[in-house]
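Entry 14. Structure prediction run on the chain below.
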Amino acid sequence: MQTDVIAAPASRPAWRGLIGFNLLTGIVLGIVGFAVGAWLGGMIGDGLRWVGQSDENDIAIFLGFALGLVGYFGGLGFFNYPISRLLGHPPSLREYDSEGWGRYFRMCTDHKVVGIQYLVVILIFFFVAGFNAMMIRTELLRPSPSIWPADTYLTLVGEHGTMMMVLMSAAVIGPFGNYLIPIMIGARRMAFPRIESMTVWMTLAAPIVLLSAIGLGGFPTGWTGYTPLADQANLGMDSYITAFILAGTALTLVGFNILATVFTMRAPGMTWGRLPLFVWAQVATAILMLLSAPVLVTALLLAVLDRTATTTFFTSGNGGSPYLFENLFWFFGHPEVYILALPGFGVALEILPVFCRKPLWGYGMAVAGMLGIAALSFMVWQHHLFVSGINAPLRPFYMLTTELISVPTGFLFINAMGTLWNARMRLEVPLLFVLAQLFNFLIGGLSGIFLSDTPSDVTLHGSYFVMAHLHYTILGGLGFSLFAAFYYWFPKMTGLQYNMRLARIHFWSVFILFNTTFAPLFAAGILDMPRRAVTYASYLQPINDWVSISAFLLGGSMLLFGINVVYSWAIARKPAVDNPWHSRGIEWQLPTPVPVHNFERLPVIVAGPYDYGVPGALPVMQPEAAAAPAGGE
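Output returned:
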């Protein structure tokens, strides 16, 4: 139940945000904690050297990361509240600051601040991962190693893939989910604001820990971390494991928080049938996060024990099984695909009615499609193991379930096509990115048919065909949805307007160059271009040269996006109007910028969000209604 008033502390100078518990303090204490942990781990590891099989001390690295994270979160202030409660102080939300840029560099329980923090973190490391991709494509300009040795190349591939998976898992649900879900359901905050704040700082820590693998010798497994190669890898593997544990823990907490918020904090009148589809998509995604991410974390913790305590969970020579890790990993890994895809569809179906000026076609079908995808996604994971020695009688079942999941996915495409049919579209930048997302994801889905059937998958599994399919599904689907969401909600989140001309140039350049970069990879895969290999047959050099040059230009188009963000946010600062898109969404009915506590009084929801062009349609809410408890029908 929500309280009617949340008292905010008196405003204070912005520079005070740099004193006390903040990111700088967290970094300093994190470094100290890592040093102490590594020293203690070194002593423990030296004392247990007789059980080890190498001179590298994995115990020191893992204990260093563990104590480093304790110091990091302590410096950010996450232990202040439980300690104050243990000392008998009353509960409060002292972190709920209303103004000042210092709040963006420390723990803050305002969900809108958390959304902006997520957005900045994801954009920064999105560019880092993109730069990593440019280094990979530079190496592939030649059919044999010319810049990076093979082990360094494998580390670059692993860094790029793992960082993109970590970031893209939170690309929409992190910034836009945290910012918008409370507003869209008529709430003042998330159910657990401190957990919400913790997840963004976990998301920041994960890629930093991952990058430390470069200084620890790298890791050779790619983003999947397969054993027994992972057991044999050097200390850089410890960075990979720790980073993915952080990411998996953050996903679990985000899923738990979203479900608690939507189930218990909806405003009066916000029935399940009036819930915006963006929120429905986050609910379906949260279910996947809550059920699948703990499996990944468990698998990685077992891998930690294999590397430090000489257990043999994944070592076949001593009773364990590498297949156990593969099954645990992909039991998370395939729902992960829809953790990436479903928020993107939520963005698309939220934006389409606004720019088509007509009601969303098939609301109930869209909800059924999202929940159907969430359910079936747990029944398809072993199609990743068709070439790994899977029991042959199981193959038909996983072929069937993989093809069945295209049915609820097809529902969402039908919703989009039905909404576009006979629409009077306004081709604004957000809609352009939505249309591109539908196009790219369709190619990704159709190419996935070849990988769901065992005969063709056996031929294509280790090739660049899979690389092309993955990028069309993930980057072509979720990446374009991220840009659509950014251009749609940027005026609301910042109170500023971006440069429309630069945005249109960005769209056309990234759409064209994305397809000229990744479509040729289907052909490269059919011609036996191997994944994760630094060498390839000389006859494949022309197609690799084409892809590399196109990728460099694609990276340039991303720089254009970055220029627009910095120019609009930090230099031009042109104020945005409250509702530039004439949307019925609750978030657009509030002032820009959104007040600290969203609503002075909880609104009463009286209509659905998609009644565009409906004669006599009621406004979505009655903001002047008396305050009332939220949650429920």
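The chain has two domains: 21-89, 113-622.
Filed with the rest of this week's runs.
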